[in-house]
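Exercise 7.
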Amino acid sequence: MISEYLIISNVLTEEECVDSITSIELDRSAEFLDGKVGEGSGDLDHDIRSTKTKFIHRGRTTRPQLVELFRKIDAQVQEANILHFDVDISGGCYDLQTALYLSDDKDYYSTHVDSELFWYNLPPKPYIRKLSCILYLSDDKNYTGGDISLLNMYGEEVIRDEDREFLNKRGNILIFPSFLRHSVTPVTTGQRMSVVFWYMGRPWR
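Solution. The predicted structure, written as tokens, is:
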């Protein structure tokens, strides 16, 4: 592991972000539901998470714009992995999760991980989430809150102060190892839409 996180600016233009939001809303392969906790079917737990989510499988999307979005994010994450992470992501990314945070509900996501680092007491899996990639789609001028925190194994914040200005910026992406604990603060005004892509690989050794 070379880096704890990476922010890449202007992966999408403003127009592409708006088109992506429209395509996600119009995609007929899935619908927005209450966000769940955990992998697979997951569980509803509003003590941990309050969001609306929409999972879109790359092979089932009804919108060609989203096929192109997968391709564009793939290219960014593959290059970032070579230069900054050097982990096995041979399983690729097969779906995206749209997360919609609404200020009316003060939506948030408490501290959690996208994938466990140690799987000793868990059922074996051929592939697990290795890298998480968040794409920010909403204009950060239209909402407040919704700030992410990334913690290392010692509970220390890893995002540097000088990088904070690049988070939540429309069209930017944040990539980090899926075992890092992270959280999203409540959205207090407006609404925040982001998309998460998980890149799969062999379990950690």
